[in-house]
């Protein structure tokens, strides 16, 4: 759907790939699955590398407090 609306998208299948995308990027928004393999999608590493807005998605209950603690 995002491609259809002409958004440019970078995709990662795990947390290691996710973090590799950030050092030289100027993204407008990051969508993160809270349960990515390898490195948990809730990691503070995203916030440490970039101040981009992050939308955390989860099918599990109980992630609200953890997500809010990312800053």
Any overview of this molecule?
It is globular and about 35 Å long. Strands 1-2 form a two-stranded parallel sheet. It is built from three helices and two strands. With 71 residues, it is an alpha+beta fold. Helix content is 23%, strand content 11%. The model has no long low-confidence stretch (mean pLDDT 75).
Spatial strand sequence of the major β-sheet: 1-2
Alpha carbon gap, first and last residue: 28 Å
Total count of helical runs of at least 4 residues: 3
Helix content class: 10-25%
Any idea what the radius of gyration is? 12 Å
Number of strands: 2
Ranges with pLDDT <50 over ≥5 residues? Answer: none
- Mean pLDDT over the full residue set: 75
SSE order, one letter for each helix or strand: HEHEH
Q: What share of residues are in beta strands? A: 5-15%
Class of secondary structure makeup: alpha+beta
Main beta sheet: 2 strands, parallel
Shape by Cα distribution:
globular
Characteristic key phrases:
alpha+beta, 71 residues, 11% strand, single chain, 3 helices, globular, two-stranded parallel sheet, 2 strands
Topology:
Elements: H1 15-20, E1 30-33, H2 45-49, E2 54-57, H3 64-68
Parallel strand pairs: 1-2
Summarize the structure.
By secondary structure, the chain is an alpha+beta fold. It has helices spanning 15-20, 45-49, 64-68; strands spanning 30-33, 54-57.
């Amino acid at each position: 759907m995002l491609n259809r609306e002409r958004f440019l998208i970078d995709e990662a299948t795990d947390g290691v790939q996710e973090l590799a995308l950030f050092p030289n990027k100027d993204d407008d928004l990051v969508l993160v699955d809270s349960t990515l393999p390898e490195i948990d999608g809730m990691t503070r590493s995203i916030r440490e590398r970039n101040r981009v807005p992050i939308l955390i998605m989860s099918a599990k209950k109980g992630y609200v407090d953890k997500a809010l603690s990312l800053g």
